[in-house]
Amino acid sequence: MFSQFALHERLLKAVAELKFVEPTPVQTAAIPPALEGRDLRVTAQTGSGKTAAFVLPMLNRLMGDAKPRVVIRAVILLPTRELAQQTLKEVERFSQFTFIKSGLITGGEDFKVQAAMLRKVPDVLIGTPGRLLEQLNAGNLDLKNVEVLVLDEADRMLDMGFAEDVQRLAGECKGAHQTMLFSATSGGAGLREMVASVLREPQHLQLNSVSQLNEGTRQQIITADHNQHKEQLVHWLLANETYQKAIIFTNTRVQADRLYGRLVATDHKVFVLHGEKDQKDRKLAIDRLKQGGVKILVATDVAARGLDVDGLDLVINFDMPRSGDEYVHRIGRTGRAGGEGLAVSLICHGDWNLMSSIERYLKQSFERRTIKELKGTYQGPKKVKASGKAVGVKKKKTDKKTEKKAPAKTATKRKTANRPKSDAPALVSRDGLAPLKRKKPTEPAAE
Ligand code: AMP
């Protein structure tokens, strides 16, 4: 029960209005220390209820000490516009019975309109780092009196190249303040550096490990010969799976547009979301998906980051994500709030190593699936012995269907004995980064 927390009655009223009955694990763990004013570092997956875990204590603090609105008192930084918009809505829902006013600053919106909003000085400011910094540099933003700073999806902000911007903005919060940093993954050196520089003696709450993510989501792979074959598989899945809403991820904008075109041509109601779409289109795509007017979204990672859409129960990875963390983020969209989901990754020759390194990173084995009428020739890598002889397809115990079809003489046990125990970091760096060097994201920040 939320009444177990020492929250202001107006916040409890909002919680009841939203029909939240039981706090989620991250809320149970984070709200009490956050109410005490402690700095927190929280590792919790997307969809775990982490927004309320920081918004409620933040609002409680602002309510405890009502002041005329002359300074910005709380700042929430997020990696993308969509996530910032969602968070604004969440803050407004929780603060509906209070005097607290919030403002949003993201890229893609009118700079002067934002400056005018800042002159009215919201209590809570929610935004993406790039545009906030621009407003700061233009002299429109004063963060000296901030009492609560939240860095949400901090790992993702780092991945998107916002490290410096975030540090700079955090550095502008010069007064005594509480900082709460949330990330979906435990992150690597970059995140540790940020934690060390922006948090003071933080309590670390680890609510998940990647291997426990999305227990309600089945994770499968289907091998494919080439992109055209993948397109056929997508059509098949959309026609044969039972789902309320589906999202198909590609690694590039070009591929997203291409697949979108193919689906539209076959009369699917579908939207495409990527960094080149303007803000209006993006909003429309998300709204239509939320309202159910459209069931299918084709998207790149950056554009779809943090989407919280009810009933999203099918994720198709047209391209394998480039890192284990990205995989977690994509799959985090299904099986939310305990629901069931299905995630299918389409694997060509070039995707295999990445896929198996992500399996090791997650310490999970994806279910191998074959679609009879679309079975291609590629079934996984052939291993070449020192003698140069092909020894067959790597198999998994769970792969009953494919195993039956594989010629007995080529079947070989999955070799694990010689694999270093910590081979995940070797192949997949701290954040599950694939062997590909990924200094910059393929898609620039969505700002
Ligand atoms: P989040 O991880 O904050 O994006 O939350 C995921 C979804 O769960 C959002 O739609 C929230 O409104 C919802 N949610 C969060 N906490 C609760 C709760 N205690 N009870 C019911 N729904 C919740």
UniProtKB/TrEMBL annotation:
CDD domains listed in its UniProt record: DEADc, SF2_C_DEAD
Domain (Helicase C-terminal) ranges: 232-377
Biased composition range(s): Basic residues: 382-399
UniProt-annotated stretches for the region Disordered: 382-447
GO MF terms, alphabetically ordered: ATP binding; hydrolase activity; nucleic acid binding; RNA helicase activity
Ranges spanned by the short sequence motif Q motif, renumbered to the chain: 1-28
Domain DEAD-box RNA helicase Q: 1-28
Family under the similarity heading: Belongs to the DEAD box helicase family.
Protein name: DEAD/DEAH box helicase
Organism: Pseudomonas cavernicola
